[in-house]
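Hi F.,

I've been meaning to write this up properly since the lab meeting, where we talked about keeping a consistent format for the predictions we share between groups. The idea is simple: the sequence comes first, exactly as it goes in, then the structure tokens exactly as they come out, then a line or two of notes. No screenshots and no reformatting. I'm using this chain as the first example so we have something concrete to point to.
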Amino acid sequence: MPPLKAFMDDIAILYVKENETRRMLIRLDAVMNWSRTSFKPTNSRSLSIRKGKLQDVCLKLASQNIPRISQEPIKSLGRWYDSSQKDIKRGSETSEQALVGL
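Output, unedited:
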């Protein structure tokens, strides 16, 4: 699986090692500076899992902290992501949304 996935204006960075993730963030920041655009770290989220457990790893982009999923859940492509790592709750939410939409 490639370590960088992009769709429209969303980018996902998937690395096994923390230092590789930090290096990619530095490279992305350099590209954004070169293109005279910027990321909004407050609109981004980080998720670090080691041995199946969430870790409190502080990542930075453009010298600003990226909030962790455990601090602030995020919605992407109509789906909420949080620190629970389970989709059981999402199934009931989808059913409720379908009933409301009918």
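Notes:
Residues 4-73 form one domain.
Strands lie at 4-7, 10-13, 49-50, 53-54, 60-61, 64-65, 74-76, 79-81.

If this format works for you, I'll send the rest the same way.

G.
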